[in-house]
User: Which sequence fits this backbone?
């Protein structure tokens, strides 16, 4: 890092990676980065304003990567047992298609922003804009055993204000040479990486329904299906906001609260869909259930569209109360500070999602897969803490 007059700071670096998980025909890769910040309010030409204490502008550019899995580049076989003429005999099956040209997933990002301190540094504001691009995405895809390559390119464009809000937009820009969609998800076909749409978006057969008989019940004959699958919504939030605050009172007490909200995405409620397969869900059993739930129960399991539910939420993430003791208390046993905190997490969730929690994911962080299938939601936690500083 280089600092100039305690106002301008520049940092640069280059990282070289060579990994045994790369394909044999791919050598190594370089990841450069460069960042700088300028406290422009310290310059002589900058106008002086009593309410503005500091203004810093910053920019950064860099590249990073994600290595393939340990065996992804290797072509190998697995031993299996198969039935032949009534007996089990040893055999082999393809364990990995392999790819000698397999390379790491690469992400480049440009970020700009500013930091402002106002009113005797009582108010701090941070604004950030970023443009992130990924290529050679490492995404598992069903292809012929003789073929294996990384070929997805994503565009992730958006901005965030760290003090309160963020927004994000992503689109798949490329799969293969003809734009073949990558189909995956719980059950194998609920999500896609398709050119022009969000990565991991939900897709399904659209349908309409109408209670033509007027008896309050939806029958299979009253449901009309579309001809082909259509985009049903993003599986990742497109915007969000957070708010945290702490209030000091009675000299020694501090109350802290943190709220978090995310919106713009859906979640596949496969738990409810699974119940409906066996006829034990509200849509199949409970009189007076909405027509939409009845229609979804009838279409399950062949069509999952009715179970893509709004997953937007606001959560009270944490609340705490801290008592900071007078200095004389810790001094009595040779310490310099003493505080006692009681806190609770995951207290309240406000959401239209009809499952246990809109943030659960049965599949884990793999291929953008996202589904709620018999998944335990985050638990509510209560704890106490004593901090002693010596």
Assistant:
């Amino acid at each position: 890092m280089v600092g100039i007059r305690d106002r301008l700071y520049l940092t640069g670096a280059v990282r070289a990676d060579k990994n045994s998980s790369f394909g044999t025909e791919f050598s190594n890769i370089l990841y450069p980065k460069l960042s700088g910040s300028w406290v422009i309010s310290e310059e002589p030409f900058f106008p002086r304003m009593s309410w503005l204490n500091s203004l810093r502008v910053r920019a950064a550019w860099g590249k990073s990567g994600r290595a393939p899995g340990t065996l992804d580049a290797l072509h190998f076989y697995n031993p299996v047992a198969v039935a032949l003429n009534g007996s089990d005999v040893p055999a082999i099956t393809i364990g990995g298609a392999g790819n000698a040209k397999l390379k790491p997933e690469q992400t480049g990002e440009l970020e700009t922003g500013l930091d402002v301190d106002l009113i005797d540094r009582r108010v701090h504001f941070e604004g950030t804009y970023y443009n992130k691009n990924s290529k050679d995405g490492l995404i598992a895809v069903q292809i012929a055993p003789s073929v294996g390559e990384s070929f997805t390119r994503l565009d992730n464009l958006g901005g965030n204000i760290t003090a309160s809000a963020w927004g994000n937009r992503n689109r798949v820009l490329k799969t293969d040479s003809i734009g073949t969609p990558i189909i995956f998800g719980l059950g194998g076909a609920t999500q896609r990486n398709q050119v022009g749409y969000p990565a991991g978006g939900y897709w399904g057969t659209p349908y309409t329904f109408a209670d033509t008989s007027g008896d309050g019940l939806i029958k299979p004959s009253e449901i009309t299906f579309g001809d082909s699958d259509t985009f049903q919504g993003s599986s990742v939030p497109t915007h969000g906001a957070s708010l945290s605050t702490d209030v000091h009172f009675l000299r020694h007490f501090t109350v802290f609260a943190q709220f978090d909200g995310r919106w713009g995405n859906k979640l596949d409620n496969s738990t409810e869909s699974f119940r409906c397969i066996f006829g034990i869900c509200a849509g199949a059993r409970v009189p007076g259930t909405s027509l939409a739930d009845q229609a979804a129960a009838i279409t399950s399991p062949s069509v999952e569209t009715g179970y893509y539910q709004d997953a937007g939420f606001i959560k009270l993430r944490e609340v705490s109360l801290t008592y900071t003791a007078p200095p004389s208390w810790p001094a009595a046993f040779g310490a310099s500070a003493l505080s006692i905190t009681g806190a609770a997490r995951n207290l309240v969730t406000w959401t239209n999602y009809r499952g246990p929690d809109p943030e659960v994911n049965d599949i884990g962080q793999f291929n953008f897969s996202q589904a709620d299938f018999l998944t335990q939601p985050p638990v509510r936690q209560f704890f106490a803490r004593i901090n002693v500083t010596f």
